Amino acid sequence: MAVAALCVPGALAAPAAAASAGTSAGARAGTETPKAAQPGDIVSAEPTEFQVFPNVPLPTHAWKIQYNSTDAKGKSNTVSGTVLVPKDDREGPRPLLTYAVGTVGIGDQCAPSAGFPKGETREAPLIEGALLRGWAVAVTDYEGLGTPGTHTYTVGRAAGTAVLDAARAAQRLPGAQEHGVGQDSPVGIMGYSQGGQASGWAAELAGSYAPELQVKGTASGGVPADLPKVAEYNDGDEEAGLVLMSAIGHDAAYPELALNGYLNDEGKRIAQVMKDGCLAEAQEAGANKKVEDVTTENPMDQPDWQQRLAEDKLGTKAPGAPVYLYHGEADEIIPYDVGKQLRADWCAKGNTVEWTSFPLSPHAGTAILGSIPAMNWLSDRFKGEPTQGDCAG
Questions:
Q1: Which residues neighbour 303 within 8 Å (Cβ) at sequence distance 6 or greater?
Q2: Percentage with pLDDT > 70 across the chain
Q3: Nearest CA to 105 among 137, 74, 144?
Q4: Is 360 exposed, middle or buried (0-12, 13-18, 19+ CB in 10 A)?
Q5: CA 265 to each of CA 133, 254, 378: distance values in angstroms, whole numbers, following the listed order
Q6: How many CB atoms lie within 10 A of CB 287?
Q7: Distance set, CA 77 to CA 4, 132, 172, 256 (Å)
Q8: N or C: which end of the chain has fewer CB within 10 A?
Q9: pLDDT tens, 7-36?
Q10: CA–CA separation, 73 vs 254, rounded Å?
């Protein structure tokens, strides 16, 4: 039970003309029309701290931010996140990595920005690896995670725009600008698992949504590129809770899907636990549950759900910039074949893809094993070194 994302067209010509006339009248009256908020604009920023583990801070300039972005339907929203810049002597434009974390849960307290000051964000040690290379890092909390509303978990387009707008926000943050982050910064995109989907969507959207970003490459691992196949793979197993979490996320993005009408009493109870809690609570509540155990009718059989699922699939568009794609051959959560198919799809679109598989490696282990090679690959892209990929192999 997971769904996808959709873009809606912009304003019609007639309203635009009316707005123009209103602006002219305002100008004649000696008033100024406020500039509309743009994706990536800073809403608020405050100092924070980055701890790798509890009581283990890293010397880092850190800000918790709120910034403008775009939801799955193309409407403006506000997303929170964190901008991190190493405390070092580096001069000139420094690389900027916009980093998408894996699943943390749906409750606001699970957001990366909430965990960094306490050393409780699980991927902080991986992010530390980027900071130690002298890179600035922008980490989105995603839509609804740390901001009002329910987290739109695994809604591809909303996640992709949040990742790209986090990079824009970092470039516009005065404190980060003072330490080498700016429009000239080469940009890398990286993420694993849920972050693999988010980074993949950011890669596919970058050229049209944020063409000014100098994206040099994307490193995505353990990517749930085909949500129906992931849902089928996990139905009734220890990670079955992720299926209902994904349904909750898509219902938040598309209320017309009316998930609650499909849930039985047990499904409603578990869904509330998931909305209030983090990953551990969600895993425990949903473990070994089949779709039929929590529903009166499977929403995946309905045309509206199927349409959103189809729209959410990665691999239908070439990212443009090179991609480093990695997956564990023993991944027990995201089918290995889903990762291989994404590679094939991007290669078929003519994109440069470098593929790395990790024999006998499970899902969480690959996140760790793949992190350093992925960052090494991104480092080469930041240096302007070419890559041919291995699509022909």
A1: none
A2: 91
A3: 144
A4: exposed
A5: 50, 22, 47
A6: 13
A7: 17, 32, 18, 19
A8: C
A9: 222 232 333 333 333 333 333 344 455 677
A10: 8
